[in-house]
Amino acid sequence: MWNLAGKNLQSRLLLGTANYSSLQTLQSVVTASETEVITLSITRQHSPLSTENFFWKSIKNTGCHLLPNTAGCRDAESAVTCAEISRELFNTNWIKLEVIGDDYNLQPDPFELVKAAERLIKKGFEVFPYCTDDQVLCKKLQNVGCRILMPWAAPIGSGKGLLNPYALETLRQRFPDMILIIDAGIGRPSHAVRIMEMGYDAVLLNTAVAISCQPEIMAAAFRHAVQAGQMAFEAGLMLERNMAQSCTPLLDTPFWHQELLS
Amino acid sequence: MITIHVNHEQQSLDKDQSINDFLAQQPLKNRCAAIAVNHHFIPRSHYDSTWLHDGDYLDFITPMQGG
Residues A25-36: what's their mean pLDDT? Predict the structure, then answer.
């Protein structure tokens, strides 16, 4: 059990809802992942007003906590507006703050991100900022009141995994009291294991599950990976050493008195 | 008679009216929707006091999939 912004959760896997082949698949994935927090977004309605929103109906049935995002925003002004709309729509003050600064790698704009975070926190939001692994940026986000940081491991949807493990480990060490959630770039369950072994609080992913050939099975794989990494972190990982050391006690084994190999 | 643009489709109204009056006449099945008028978010608490005028753009904003 852990606490995320006032909610007690069992699962440390947060899941995006995009790119699934059907709503039925999405629901199966949510079930298989055992996630308790899902992300979603907002859009201008293009269908007639009389059309029912089946996605919304489906999402409500999951019983998960909702983490709306500000996808598509490129400046603080639009991100704040998007967050206010989401707060009314979804009845939550949680907001996954995305302010994109580059079209090629969808890197956050750090300047607009901090500006938006500061304004949203003053308006009573719990801000989950999608950020890079830059320590100075993270410090500024902390200074404006963020209690949670969501650094990328790699660009969104790239599946490249931990591009800069040193930076991510350093963030964990430098921000021991912040909730740290890796938000982007996870491609394989082994990436999630490694993140959790570092002591991160949770992993948020979408594409790696959604575009898998068997999303339900991949969701379960990530569930196990996150659990395994968390258990390993809690158990305490051994330190690496250069010299081999036999696991088996050699004293009194039949040939223990032979000459050592040189 | 005035004309407004609802989700980019023209719609005629008898006269200026509040958002609440407008909503009361719509066959809305999707209760989960926020509203923007001329690209500005209008909180629910302002639906009575916000009036639609000729040429206004009214957008319904709804949930969608997101990562």
Answer: 98
Q: How far is CA A104 from CA A118, A152, A158, B28, B57, in A?
A: 26, 15, 11, 39, 32
Contact A133, A154 (CB under 8 A): no
* Nearest-CA distance B30 → chain A (Å): 5
Of the partner residues B26, B41, B66, the one whose CB lies closest to the CB of residue A49: B26
Express each pLDDT in A82-97 by its tens digit. 999 999 999 999 999 9
Choice between A254 and A53, residue whose per-residue pLDDT is larger: A53
Q: Please report where in the chains the tokens 């912040």 appear, as a residue.
A: A178
Name residue B4's beta-bridge partners: B11
Q: pLDDT tens digits, residue range A59-84? A: 999 999 999 999 999 999 999 999 99
Q: Read off the pLDDT of residues A97-147 as tens digits, 9 standing for 90 and up.
A: 999 999 999 999 999 999 999 999 999 999 999 999 999 999 999 999 999
As a whole number of angstroms, the distance between CA A195 and CA A232 comes to: 11
User: Of B7, B40, B63, which is closest to A42 when you measure between CB atoms?
Assistant: B63
DSSP string, A146-176: -SEEEEBSSSTT-----S-HHHHHHHHHH-T
Q: Do B67 and A18 touch (CB under 8 A)?
A: yes
Residues of A involved in catalysis: 96
Secondary structure of residue B60 in the 3-state scheme: strand
Give me the DSSP letters along A199-219: T-SEEEESHHHHTSSSHHHHH
Q: Do A89 and B43 touch (CB under 8 A)?
A: no
Per-residue HEC secondary structure of A228-240 comes to HHHHHHHHCCCCC
Q: What residues contact residue A195 under an 8 Å CB cut-off, 6+ apart?
A: A153, A162, A168, A182, A186, A203, A229
**3-state secondary structure at position A54:** helix
Helix (H, G, I), strand (E, B) or coil at A225: helix
What whole-number distance in Å separates Cα of residue A3 and Cα of residue A169?
22
Q: Do the strands B2-6 and B51-52 form a parallel or antiparallel pair, or are they unpaired?
A: unpaired
Q: Provide the 3-class DSSP secondary structure of residue B3.
A: strand
